[in-house]
Design brief:
Blueprint (H helix, E strand, L loop, with lengths): L9 H21 L2 H17 L1 H18 L3 H7 L3 H15 L8 E5 L6 E8 L2 E6 L4 H12 L3 E5 L5 H17 L7 E3 L6 H7 L7 E5 L2 H10 L12 E5 L5 H13 L8 E7 L5 H10 L3 E4 L1 H4 L6 E2 L13 E7 L2 H11 L4 E5 L3 H10 L4 E4 L18 E3 L7 E3 L5 E8 L7
Parallel strand pairs: 3-4, 3-6, 4-5, 7-8, 7-12, 8-11, 9-10, 9-11, 12-13
Antiparallel strand pairs: 1-2, 2-16, 14-15
Helix pairs in contact: 1-8, 2-5, 2-7, 3-7, 5-6, 6-7, 10-11
Length: 423
């Protein structure tokens, strides 16, 4: 008679894994820079060695996704091949080569009492990562957490369950080979949605939650979490073409910002054009020729009959498709007001040769990333020289913009004295 496996209680499972992760994190905190880097390189090698197992697991997920009716875009995010897997391994190697933020001295001082004060970077602790679709996040998040001295508790989406398990198994084997505890990176073994709720309520066990996924996931995390959250909800990114913009630059930036990759959070979703910009029709034509689907206000529609009417909801929609909202504005002040009203505080850009207008835009737009004469598609940790990123943060506390190793640390004060007592 076959032995039946008892069902996993999500609450008990999360609590047990979190406690084990906290113990492992203390071991990580003691590990040297070289030890963490060497373990990550061994994990990258293990990913390469497990290529056949990982790709076979991914094939199972792809077949299940097709049966479930996943869109072509979702299937593409899920799909792995030898080249993509090598890219995942290279990303882990790259993180291993980044400077270790742990132990960095942020600043030092010595007040009149003679105490030597230092602020020093330290890991945050145990990080809960909740993500969807892309199996590469399993390795990316694990590598960033280990390099910054944090333990990770991962909960991937059901559509990538077999891929995530195969990647995690290989990665953890590399950590063990490098002398680090396997519990430093754990993958929740159940796809029961109650496990997400258990993570969100694990105050005192999980130190921070990082969601990576669609709007519904992030909204739930931000609404229900009893643990600090590092996240962005939408990428409602704007590009404003100022009256003094270079026409060729404006066309190139607008097309790239929207059409390079329409499904990423740094893609432009609203284009604002100054009424005094003389080449607005050329920008519109370039976007339409590139395959963009434009929805505009009356003034924008007057530029080209192919522009559909924008609804009130369009100005607050993250399309993640070739669709784009277009509005004509009277001046910089009106552009700033529109962005303040509709931006999700992710990434907003101005195109202009007027230095004063650019500086005002950079100062007044309250977004995590503000740009001058550059495509919003540069909103990426790798492009910022940070290595791999764990996400883009749009809040105002702790970290903003691309979050890489430094964003996964906090600090503590170290005080060195010579017997001082306070009068």
């Amino acid at each position: 008679m076959a032995t039946q496996t008892a069902p996993i209680d999500p609450q008990v499972c999360v609590n047990e894994l979190a406690r084990a992760g906290r113990v492992a994190q203390r071991a990580l905190a003691r590990a040297s820079d070289a030890e963490k880097a060497d373990a990550l390189r061994l994990s990258a090698r293990a990913l390469r060695d497990a290529e056949s197992a990982i790709l076979a697991a991914n094939a199972r997920d792809l077949e299940a996704g097709k049966q479930a009716g996943l869109s072509d875009a979702m299937l593409d995010r899920l799909r792995l091949d030898a080249e993509r897997l090598e890219g995942i391994a290279k990303a882990v190697d790259a993180v291993a080569g980044l400077p270790d933020p742990v132990g960095q001295i942020i600043d030092q001082s010595q007040p009149a009492n003679g105490l030597k004060l230092s602020r020093v970077r330290v890991p945050i602790g145990l990080l809960g990562i909740i993500y969807e679709s892309r199996p590469n996040v399993t390795a990316d998040a694990a590598a960033l957490c280990v390099r910054s001295g944090n333990a990770a508790l991962l909960r991937g989406g059901s559509e990538a369950v077999h891929s995530n398990r195969a990647i995690h198994a290989a990665f953890a084997s590399g950590l063990v080979a490098g002398g680090l505890p396997a519990e430093a990176v754990q993958l929740i073994p159940t796809q029961d949605r109650a496990a997400v709720g258990a993570m969100l309520g694990a105050a005192g066990l999980i130190d921070m939650i990082i969601p990576r996924g669609g709007r519904s996931l992030v909204e739930r995390v931000q609404r229900d979490a009893r643990v600090p959250v590092l996240a962005h909800l939408d990428g409602l990114c704007h590009t404003y073409i100022h009256a003094a913009a270079n026409p060729a630059m404006a066309c190139a930036i607008a097309v790239n910002a929207k059409m390079r990759r329409t499904g990423i959070c740094g893609a432009m979703e609203t284009l604002l054009i100054d009424r005094d910009f003389a080449e607005a029709d050329a920008v519109i034509e370039a976007l339409l020729d590139a395959g963009a689907e434009l929805r505009g206000d009356e003034a924008a529609q007057a530029l080209d009959t192919r522009i559909a009417t924008a609804s009130a909801e369009d100005w607050d929609t993250e399309y993640l498709t070739p669709a784009l909202s277009v509005a004509m504005v009277d001046d910089l002040a009106e552009a700033l007001a529109h962005i303040a009203r509709h931006s999700s505080n992710h990434t907003d850009a101005i195109v202009t040769d007027d230095a004063a207008a650019a500086e005002r835009f950079l100062a007044e737009v309250d977004s995590a990333i503000v740009m001058h004469n550059a495509s919003s598609q540069f909103a990426d940790g790798g492009e910022f020289g940070l290595g791999a990123e764990i996400g883009i943060a749009t809040g105002r506390l702790h970290a903003r913009g691309p979050v890489a190793l430094e964003g996964l640390t906090t600090y503590k004060w170290q005080v060195r004295g010579k017997g001082q007592t306070r009068p």
